[in-house]
Amino acid sequence: MAVALQEGLVVTGHGRHYVVETEDGQRRICHPRGKKSQAVVGDRVHWLAPATGQGDEGSIEAILPRSNLFYRQDDIRTKAFAANIDQVLVLLGAEPVFSEWQLAKALVAAQAAGIPALIGLNKQDLTEPFALAWQRLAAYRQVWPTAHLESAGSAAALPTGRALYPVFRVQFDAEHGGEDWPALLHRLQGKATLVLGPSGVGKSTLINRLVPAADAQTAEISRALNSGRHTTTTTTWYWVDRAEQTAVLDSPGFQEFGLNHIEWQQLPQWMPDIGRHATGCKFYNCTHIHEPGCIVRDAVDREEVEATRVEEANKETAGGMALPLIAPSRYALYQALFAELRDKS
Ligand SMILES: Nc1nc2c(ncn2[C@@H]2O[C@H](COP(=O)(O)OP(=O)(O)OP(=O)(O)O)[C@@H](O)[C@H]2O)c(=O)[nH]1
Ligand SMILES: [Zn+2]
């Protein structure tokens, strides 16, 4: 008798073992058919139950088309975080002090994969380091004046009147969750969100807050996969609600967010604050590094011209502080990223 293919969702994986959630909510271990097929957490797959007497581990027969794939790539390997996600939440904390370099790279990868990104700043209770970290995120919180956006050629990349990236102040270890917890919760609703961030920022605290049974689920999965202990070496998909509309994905930490898959020519496109100025330069192939008549480099110095409008728009988020059209720190990141990517090409 022919066994029917069934659809399932890859919720985690270790090596060549994957855990597939079946349509009736069961979780079972499956192995990919053939050496090449690499499933990723978030993949929808066709899987096949074993024939009677062949144990209970199934096989993944096909990976259904993905809407996106979020990954990093260094000199040695490509590491996929997840597929088919709605957004990435880059989580930072007042402590440990975060690396803006890693933040910028993760945001570039998200943009290049067509995945919206949010930023969370946790540990609001640590008043002083929190204020410093919040200040370091000013360029990311900056709201762009609508008038300016309309006059910029590539304005479509940025929604008008919104921050470059939404940034949420949170305190996951407190009952109230921090100042922007309700807003963040609202943004998570009905979506699959990959939580990304350095070690110690509070990723597990967030997952456990949203999914009280997460620890138990993880233990069960680890047992099933025989790994004995749980270290976050792989992404895991958790449903937040019974209706399975909202999901959060816990991801492993990383030393360096490799961007080998990004072409230097496209970098401005993946840094929206740079990219939206990158249309009127004197040379059509301007790299925005050294050429004369570069609109991008102009914008780094254009604080005074646009200050009034920028100030208006930023009263809420930046405390009335005027910000340059392109924050010098962001342009410095562009220069460094550009150099790194171009060296590798
Ligand atoms: N002060 C303060 N500490 C917090 C807050 N949220 C989490 N922590 C603490 O920060 C530490 C790290 O939290 P985790 O949730 O384990 O961080 P993680 O990002 O999962 O870290 P890894 O497992 O190493 O990747 C723990 O001691 C938490 O109790 C917060 O809002 N304020
Ligand atoms: Zn230029």
UniProtKB/TrEMBL annotation:
It holds the Pfam family RsgA_GTPase. Binds 1 zinc ion per subunit. Its cofactor is Zn(2+). Gene3D superfamilies: Nucleic acid-binding proteins, P-loop containing nucleotide triphosphate hydrolases, Probable gtpase engc, domain 3. Zn(2+) binds at residues 281, 286, 288, 294. It is found in: Cytoplasm. Transmembrane segments: none annotated. The keyword Lipid metabolism does not apply. GO terms for biological process: ribosomal small subunit biogenesis. GTP binds at residues 122-125, 197-205. Signal peptide: none annotated. Residues 83-255 form the EngC GTPase domain. Keywords: Cytoplasm, GTP-binding, Hydrolase, Metal-binding, Nucleotide-binding, Ribosome biogenesis, RNA-binding, rRNA-binding, Zinc. GO terms for cellular component: cytoplasm. Residues 72-257 form the CP-type G domain. Its main location: cytoplasm. InterPro entries: G_CP_dom, NA-bd_OB-fold, P-loop_NTPase, Ribosome_biogen_GTPase_RsgA, RsgA_GTPase_dom, RsgA_N. Belongs to the TRAFAC class YlqF/YawG GTPase family. RsgA subfamily. This is Small ribosomal subunit biogenesis GTPase RsgA. It comes from Lampropedia puyangensis. The gene is rsgA.
